[in-house]
Amino acid sequence: MVSDRMKTLLYIILFSCSYSVYGQNEKTLIKKGNSEYNKKNYSEAELNYRKSLEKNPQSATGSYNLGNALYKQGKQEEAEQYFSGSAAMEKDKAAQAEALFNLGNSKLKAEKYEESISAYKQALKLNDKDEEARYNLAYALSKLKKQQQQQQQNKDKKQDQKKDQEQKKDQQQQEQKQDQQKQQQEQQQQQAQKKEKISKEDAERMLQALKNDEKKLQKKLVKKYDARMGGTDKDW
Questions:
Q1: Residues 107-126: tens digit of each pLDDT
Q2: What pTM does this model have?
Q3: Domain ranges of the chain
Q4: Please, which of 130, 144, 146, 216 could form a disulfide with 113 given CB 3.0 to 4.6 Å?
Q5: Does the domain made of 11-148 have the CATH classification 3.30.710.10?
Q6: What is the end-to-end Cα distance of the chain in Å, rounded?
C-alpha cells in the first residue's frame, strides 16, 4: 500500500535562532499550523500556513507544510504546486527529497503515474536509502503498466468497434446495391411482360383484322359470283 507519509518540518530545524519580528511572526504561524495539523484540523492548519507564506513567500517549509494540509483535504492539484515549489526552493537535500516524495504521492493519487514516477526517481537520487520511495516507485510503475494496458485495450476496442461499423456499413451498402439490382430486374421483367402482353394483343388484333378482311373478301366474291350467275340465267 502506498505510504501516506506527510511530515511537518519544525521551524527549529530550518531556521536560525536569531529571528527578527518578521521571522518570529512567520515562525509563530508555522508553529500554529503544525499544532492544528497534528490535531487533524487540516483546514485550520492550511490557513496558518498560508498566512506564514504571506510573510515569506520563499519559505520552503511553509510551502511544504501547506502542501501536506492540502493533500489531507484531497486538494491534490494545489498540493502538487506547493510540494513542487518547496522542492525547488529547498536547499537541504533530505528536506528536498521529502518534498519530492510527497509530490510523487500527490501525482500518484491523481493517477498521473508518469509524473509520480519522475518525482520518486528524483527523491531517490537525493536519498537512495528511502525504502518507501522505492516501494512507491515500483507501485507507480505497476499502475502505469496497467493503465497503458487498459488504454491499449480501449484503443483496440475502439478500433474493433470502428471495424465492425465499417463492415456493417459495407454490408448495408451491399444489401442496398442488391436491393436496387433486384428492383431493376423486377422493373425490367415487368416492362418485358408488359411489352409481351402488348405484342400479343397487337397480334390478336392483326389476326382479327385479317379474319375480318377475309370475311369481307369472301362476301364480295360471293356477290360477284351471284351477279354472274344471275346474268347468265335463261328461261328455257
A1: 999 999 999 999 999 999 99
A2: 0.62
A3: 11-148, 191-228
A4: 144
A5: no
A6: 150
